[in-house]
Amino acid sequence: MKRTLVVVDMQNDFIDGALGTKEAVAIVPAVKKKIEEYKENGDKIIFTRDTHGEDYMKTQEGKRLPVPHCIKDTEGWQIREVLDADSNADRIIDKDRFGYTGWSEFKAEDLGDIEVIGLCTDICVVSNAILLKAIFPENKISVDASCCAGVTPEAHEAALTTMASCQIEIIR
Q: Model's pTM, two decimal places?
């Protein structure tokens, strides 16, 4: 059975940088372990990377969230080094919005069961999980709650509830 792990925005700015939280720091070991499990099984691993330009503060997102973060080629934009994305990823996707709108370039049969993990549960994880479910309705889509963190613990739980309502399996 084919499986794909989608690792969403495990970047320095979301872990302990501009928008970091203690909850984000806490999930790094579990995310690393999950990546290692998928790698050992020969499964596909896709990383996404939130990517903004120097003009971030002029964008709609920048006006609503006026905290410069994940500016391309900065330390904050980098995927956490311990996750070794360069050698673990089948692909690294730079996305300029919450959800990657190019998921339809993949084939359902090539992805198989899709598990989504990463940051932030209530913004980019939920956006990508719901997009994946909409594009690949017959693929099993799951989210491991222990490998995700939200902006707040309450927002994390609310996003998990939303995803469960959209027939995304929540692993606890």
A: 0.98
